[in-house]
């Protein structure tokens, strides 16, 4: 009888440990899986007045677009990360502008791309685009953006965002080649 009780106790203990171990292995984001994509984009040449767009985005500074740079503006609103990208290089006839977004731990990777089914033109152009990412926590992230027309040797878009202490901010990245102008001309 004692041996049966001992076996029952052992089964209960090992079952409890097994269930505890399974519950501790969940590495998912407690806020839910981060998702998102492009919510809007301009025609070739960008928005006529990006300053108006940025004022609605709570950007307080003056903004003058320079043709040899690409820009990133960001703001965390609740659990949604809003990104405004100005002067993004794409084919002149991209169809729809898209973004593949992955969030892994504290790294956000965005791959900007064009609609694969679009009839491409024999030219490139600068566009503005807006991206939203859901279920983002106010913590520090490394944001990496891959641009379709930026060569690997160029200044990559990689920035540290401390959304807990600075939920809004901006950065600019030099692009001195087509479709961006060369040295501001």
Can you characterise this structure?
This protein has 185 residues and is of the alpha+beta class. The chain has two helices and nine strands, in the order H-E-H-E-E-E-E-E-E-E-E. Strands 1-6-3-2-9 form a five-stranded antiparallel sheet, with no helix packed on it. The chain has a four-stranded mixed sheet with strand order 4-5-7-8, with no helix packed on it.
Provide a brief overview of the structure.
By secondary structure, this protein is of the alpha+beta class. Helices cover 16% and strands 39% of the residues. The longest helix is centred in the N-terminal third of the chain and has 23 residues, at 2-24.
Identify the notable features of this structure and list them briefly:
four-stranded mixed sheet; alpha+beta
**Taking all residues together, what is the mean pLDDT?**
80
Shape: globular
How large is the radius of gyration?
Answer: 23 Å
- Side by side, the strands of the main sheet go 1-6-3-2-9
| Series of H and E elements | HEHEEEEEEEE
Alpha-carbon distance between the two ends = 92 Å
Strand segment tally: 9
Contiguous helical run count: 2
Estimate what percentage of residues fall within beta strands.
35-45%
State the share of residues found in helices, binned by percent.
10-25%
